Amino acid sequence: MKTLSEAHQLRISKIYEQYRNVVCPLVAFIESVDAKFPITILNEIRSIFSHFSRAYEESVADKEISEELAKAENHLKRAILDCYKFGSLSLMDFYDNFRAEYRFADLAQIDNGVFLSKITQDFSNGQQQLLQAKMSERMGKTADELYNEFEASFRLFLGVYKLVNEKIGIVHRVSKKAKWTRFWGTFGFWISLGLAVVGIVLAL
Q1: What is the pTM of this model?
Q2: CA 9, 83, 8: angle at the middle one, nearest 5?
Q3: Which of 3, 68, 90, 152 can bridge 34 by disulfide, Cβ–Cβ 3.0-4.6 Å?
């Protein structure tokens, strides 16, 4: 394997650093929320290291090495962009599942309504930001231009995720209280109905 110039080695080092410090944590997070590894991200990662490998081939000239590294940098940008896209979708599913699971709980009881107001507003803002990012993507904007837009939506959804997990213990207690309230309400209804039926029968 040939030795690359110091400039080329520095570019590779920076690419790998971003892969390790940005892509890997994002992929791990997506897997923890969604329990799956999006194939498009995997393909971008494979492409990054494929271009690294070509850069080290003996037959590749110095100019071609720069081209290979530029391609690797583009795949890195696409990988990060895809992480934000899939991360946003995973967090949207998380939020929908959370609201469905605790649909009977009065979440407005938590922090005097601040918790419910915050997650509802931030989730709505995240949806709007994601829609704007997708519209920009359809308009043909570059990965560099789309990066900030998709990251912004991801950060909003991530804030909702963190707040929900921070308050999940309180949410459980509120939900449990709501279940008992419904139980005793239903129980009381049937008791009242039973007594009414008995009263009617005795009156006959």
Answers
A1: 0.81
A2: 10
A3: 90
